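ugh ok fine here u go
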Amino acid sequence: MMPRLLAAAALLACLPAIAQDKNLYVRGGFNGWGTANALASKGKNIYEADILVGPGNHGFKLGSKDWSEEWVVDGSRGVTVTPDTAYRLETRPGPEDYLFVRRTGTYRFTLDASDPAAPQLRVVRLADQQAAGQADPHAGRQPVTMSWPTWDGKQETASFSTPDAGAALRSYTHSTTMDLRDPGPQHVQYSEQAGLPRVRTGNLAFDALFALAGFEMRQDSVSQIRDGNYNGGAPIPCECFATGEKWPYVWTRDLSYAADLGLAMLDPQRVRNSLEFKLSGWRAGLALASQVAGTKDGLQIVQDTGSGGSWPVSTDRISWTFAAEEVLRTLPSGERAAFARRALRALSNTIENDRIAAFDALSGLYMGEQSFLDWRDQSYASWIPGELAAMSTSKALSTNVGHYQALTLAARLAREQGEAARASRYEHWAANLKQAINARLWLKDAGMYSSLTAGHLDGAPLHKFDWLGQSLAIVTGVADQEQARSILSHYPHGPMGAPVIWPQQPGMPVYHNRAIWPFVTGYGLKAAARAGNVAVADAAYATLMRGASLNLSNMENLEWLSGQPLLLDERNPSLIGPVINSRRQLWSVGAYLGMVVDTVFGVSATDDGIALAPFVTAKLRRETFGAASEIALQDLRLHDRRIGVRLRLPAAGKEDGYYAIERILLNGKPADGTIRLVQLQEQNDIEIVLGKLVTGQQAIRRVQEDPYASGGATFGPREPAIASLMRGAGGVTLTFAREQGLVYSVYRDGKLVADGLRTGAWVDRNGGVAACYALAARDTASGNRSHHSIPRCVGASIEIGASDPRVVATIPASPPDAQFSMPRIKGWGRPGDRFAVERIDVATPGRYQVQLSYHNAANDLRLGTSNGVKWLVLKDAAGKAVAQGVVQMPHTPPATATTSAVYSTPLAADLKAGRYRIEMGDFYNMSYLDSNSSFSGAGGSKGPYNRVDIMGVRLLRTQ
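structure:
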């Protein structure tokens, strides 16, 4: 102990100098873990920092700029500090400490180093500034208010005023009574923007909220972007859309959905720039595997850093298509052709490589993580983060609909550019994919699509649902009219709107779980308008207006039952959330703009003009536009034309429904709902007269629960586990631990073979000699179901370790060490590396799954571009390939002394008895793209990275 104590004493002795030089900071969740709050000397070895802290349970540490020093209360555990209490600090790294704050206030962090051997930290809340001394932001004006009920029976109010209601471009003051997510004033000021449309509805609040969305769109319009993981954190020039206040970079899916919802019509050039930024070719000098498809430059859509090292764990880069299609409709004609050619090349390269790496021919579906729901523990089984290969091989509704959209657009562009063969190929693939989505993912008993299937060795569609996937299926036409009606009537809505997933995950904080995301609500609104569901549309209108008005911004997300930007739970601080929540989140801004332009006024772009299909519900007309006989959208600009749209409204009534179009006038002359560009003049006035009230669909599923409930009707059970699986004379016996109130289902090879089990054991008397089983739980009260357990198999397997003499590799196996109890081939996978296993004798014919036993510690489970993506070939004794394809080895949890290796995605092969050989070489991952050449982690500035540790191979018999 003596050397450690001497080292600590030496460090403590220099404490005053560190603080005096402002090298010590209070760093935490309240300041983005940055260095904005230096501890300043107050004399006599006392150092202070006063920090405005918003509500939340904030982790923090005292640390230096480079994190070489970390000082915490207890190096072995996190401590929640009590204000005005002194804590002795340890000057070593450790878990972060916490400060729980219920109400925004200024906190003074005081470091007392007068005794260098025992420095102390004290945190004190300073006296709050008196509200009475604050000026009324609406002074001298009569504000208009919007009031909204809260979950606990109270009211929150937003107020709006303008100094000149008759101004061509109004400015607004907007205040709220609700506690904001981040510290700051309870009001904001903004103005209507020249060059963007504005609305005049007779409701100042509605006009102001549209102006707020336009103002925030301009705030997100930047000339440079940055991310700490790229370009050394330095700015990157780009006339682009940044993702939000807390996300100052361009992310493929955020940009794409935002543009599709509303931004592409209003600023197509900036959207195009942003889309171009998300395209990349190969790095210079790469020697690529022969199996890689596409043009020589490799131009393709970038899958951002993410789960398990990115693509093809995640394949929703094809969401880029949604934005590209809208931009192609709205770009000036002189710019469209060049972008169309580039878009087709990028789409084609992406499609062809995704077909190789991520398409499952057996199901007809594409593999990969759910689109946007990319925090694994938020929406997947709890075992998935440690077994990301199983997430890689699952099939998600939202992602498959995105692939359908990509194929459809690529086919249209190919036909437009004279490539008939390519167009036919993609049209055929799109038709087959649509059929497969409906055959494999539609759950008749739920009246909705399954959001995802289980991964390999299971593959069953899960009774898990997400609002984005359901909505995209409707708006793209994957769902037919009857399916659309069913989805809209079955997907649950809380009092504040629809959650992004259903049911919720127990024991998880709010983010994707237990949350409303406005952009997803925007797609739900588009789906409701398309299918004529009035109740769902009205719920979406309320969600979007409520969120923007009470938060003074278009927020990233909200807790779904309370509508709060941060739901505090002092009893369960680990469940507080949303975990992250940014103002002016780009896709939320796009959703609000689209709500007004595309849905209320009904204006959308077509390939050669505009379509008009306003969806004004009786409730919206009655409660929002009640004083107006007409409402107007002014100065919408498209292809150098200016367009004004006036909606003439019928008298408000008490019945619910939506108003049908009675007639349309273009510049005083009759027109229909589709207007071509050649019909438009430089200045255009479109008058739409709304008439008959159509009942439409009124069905909506309502659910309600206490936001602080940790279980109950809105949650699904945690997935169970198979305790044992044994084959005997009477069949296969499966045992598991039961929980009260749950019944259980058994799946064999992805097929339901037992349901409603109430005992902890079941015998399969009909299973074959090889089969894989999974278990799911159902809550008898709510009917909600769990994710599936880890599959377990009873088939025999052939396992060959890395040091086996049959293994031939360019890197020899290393002996066991402190991390792994088995030999391994370390760091295998450079482009020239080869790996083979010879003389594999298969005695029993059947279907086998060939997998690598591996470890990939290139980056965190959540981050990076270093998924191990390789090409595996299984050859028979004559040297003929009997199976070949991509295998993935995503990032794995950190290695420990007890770490066991995990298995790669499988290569399926139907084998006869005989001798075989495995050969493995390179494919590619996202680190091979030039766009990642400045990435800070593995696969970045030091070159591509596609390496793993290999422990061996197995051939698992599954049939």
